[in-house]
Amino acid sequence: MAIIPLVRRYGTVLTLCSAGALAVAATNAQQVEPRSVNQQTALISVVTKKGDPVASLTPADLTIKEDGRSREVLKVERATGPMEIALLVDTSTAATRAIPDLRAALKAFSQAIWAESPDSQIALYSFGDRPALEADYSQSALSLDRRIDRLFAGAQSGSYFIDAVVEAAAGLRKRKPARPVLVAFVDENGPEMSNQRGGHAYDAVAAARASLWTVSRQGITDTTASSSENRERAIVTGDVTERTGGRGVTVFGSAGLTTQLTNVATQLLAQFVVTYGRVESLIPPEKLEIKLTNSDLRLAAPQWTTR
Fold it and tell me: Does 51 score more than 60 pLDDT?
């Protein structure tokens, strides 16, 4: 008779033990569940060897790694959202002879952008002497053209290209547009006067999540080629454009400016938005690496992550 309560007690203990074991098992199961994946995006430009934009891309055309770890490409779509573009123009003394052709090229660039993307906004900066905002961001071709017509090269002035990149990128960062872009004309015939280095330009453009595109008029003399400032300028027109997802091209005479700036507009209008998956992590990745599986195509893609 007295045994019955003891059996019930042991049964209760066994029941509690079983429940506890199940709870521990459930906890362990939760601990080994796969980490969630969030979606990240990057803007890229893809052209043929002849420089013509490609019409379409699929996830199979790309591979993506972050800090060396492969990521799944989820989808690739044409970028259709409006851009905010900072046009940076060299108005130093060296650009004097190029100014008439430059005015025509800047107008052709803006016309090409607005013909396909009327909601995009364009601002105009000059950097002969200290960087100056000539025209704020707007969708008005009339006001921009009027300001372009008033561009003149400064007397006895040098180029502050790197300073202009840093300043314009900081402005874009504050505005937080979906598609921030910097497009610059640089005349290599004159000295670079900026105190800031190429690394400062990259940091500023990356912080704005923008791409930098440059069209440079090649210098015909090397009187200033050995200066540290000019070497830093070359880093920006070369390395920084590539690392931010843009491109840098060189013209030998100002007559080629319209063709090259219009080509930049064409590539911007043909950009793609790539969406890929990233596994949640306490430490965000530092480097993004996007590659094409087709070696006959050329890619312009950022190397910074969205974090």
Answer: yes
